[in-house]
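name: query_chain
kind: protein
chains: 1
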Amino acid sequence: MKFRHTLVAAGVLCTLSPYTTAADRLAPVEVTATSPQPGSTTLLPFELPPAKTSADALRALPGISGSRKGGHGTDPSIRGLSETRLNVLLDGAYVHGGCPSRMDPPTSYAPLSTYDEVTIIRGVQTLEYGAGGPGGTILLERSTEPFGPDEPARALLEGGYRSNGTAWDATADVADGNPNGYLRAIGHLSQAHNYEDGSGNKVRSSYRARAGTFIAGWTPRENERLELSVERQETKDILFPGLGMDAPYANDTSVRLKYRNTDRPGPFASLKAEIYRTEVDHLMDNYTLRTPGPMQLAAPSTSNTTGGRVTAELTSSLGPWKMGLDTQHNARDARRQTRTGTLQSILWPDARIWQAGLFAELTHPLGNKDRLIAGLRFDHVKAEADRQKVNTDPAAAATSNDVPANLYANLYGTTASDRNENNLGGLVRFEHDLPANRGMVYAGLSRTVRTADATERYIAAWMMDPTKVRVGNPALSPEKHHQAEAGIAWKAKNWRADASVFLNKVSDYILRDRNTSRNEIYRNVDATLYGGEFNLVRQWSPNWSSTLGAAYVHAQNDTDGRPIAQTPPLEGSLSLDYRQDRLEAGARLRAAATQTRVDLYSSSGVLGDGRDARKTPGWAVADLYGRYRVNDSLELAAGIDNLLNHSYAEHLNLEDGDGNTVQVNEPGRSFWLKLSAAF
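structure:
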């Protein structure tokens, strides 16, 4: 992929059309959206809606939902699975957020305009990107094209503005080099105030953010490079709606070292190796950014991740192999304390999870049009919590109920002793090419094992109600996802269609629940999820095209015979797009059905104790967008989101640190504008 932040697209539906590319925007750079494997979509950040955070923008794609938490920190969901059921890699690195309530998911540390490419993998299509990820994988990647002998420096300047919330962002991306190497620097600034929903109500959603990335690359040969990058992300004064806390700051520092050789002699066709270190510092409190209440609390936390991977591709008589090994160590520590420093809860008692895995995948040809892809993955997991026996009151006895180990013992009959797992996963998929290069059909089976994360295992939080607690379960079994999937990618002269269906039978699904004492707990249940995605493009004429997309997920807790909370309803979109010479314009309708499959009671039997806020009404909103290429270097894009100023909320909602479900309304009408200049 070339270094080519080119120009900003007006709407995501252009990405979904095979007839809309950006190859002619800034000669000689080529940019196209591709689908490198079944169930995946690769696109360019400029093709996504402007002035939005990463996960918020990705919600425009079929099958991707998200839990809105204000203006910053939307948590993505694919096929009804979210949080650590998705693998999210930021330029090859795992960044695990610092908030036990997930106010800072990994995508909140990834401004879209600072990346070159985004790949969405729905479900399990490969074993390459680490353990788990049964819902899918999100890859945000940077790739700097090596410089020619006489090539001048490259630069991109772009800025965007949205009227609702007075939000703006600006990015500068410059690079210089020669055939032996390059230097690249990326700077990003953004700010948003509280937006208004369609009824004119203010939603706490303001924030300030800045980011800086420095990349140095050595390119001794055409297909070989060594690259070092250092990155700093800072977000300040983040407001969240609801009864919980705000975040005075959420920061991440990342260092990455990568090696790639894609043209090696001998059996190894390519070799990639990378190591990384990410450090997150996060603070939430209920007094710095809002009127203090009677109980003033702060929750400082850290989440540090060290990892790496080595991946090789080699040829054999059976077909090409891809194999590799990876490791990841995440250490999380968080506490909640009063404003004067008195410890109130040990949220993460120095929780540590280490994972090491290896995998191998073979693509075996079965004639000219058929192939079989098969792979296995083995992961060893070790989990521990070093501060489990610390109590919030140093003067209290070691048997005090506020000691995390005692909370685990009281609720689950176990303590947070070290846990070890040996997990085996794999996939097998058959692919058949359709005649006349019309596309392909495929069907596959997979097994994915996801270990419990630090919150599910070890959180030990007292609620505002001093008789209630939220306690992780150290004895949780890992989730085992057994999925079947089938799909088709088809194209004709004026048509293109992509469709897939899946069935996911889960053993030991980790359910966040409330017991009869109304304490928040985690337990294993069996579950079934099924659904699919559909996308159809029609080119009516050289200038006109339309796109129809839809996605659906049905999720059931089989053990208790009730729906799984936080599952998106049937969602869809319809667009009409026009393109001619330098001008593009379009209109899009986005809609969701009423979600009636909700969990409002949980195991407590008390209405309102479930993780769903309500049966969410259906909604439909219209957007307009357009862009004009002024010349080969300059482009202007503009549009209106939520044209009719509809007041609505998506079903996936926010849950604050005390377990309160808060459904956040989406922004009302918003005018936006973006200008891009490349040199």
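note: The radius of gyration is 24 Å.
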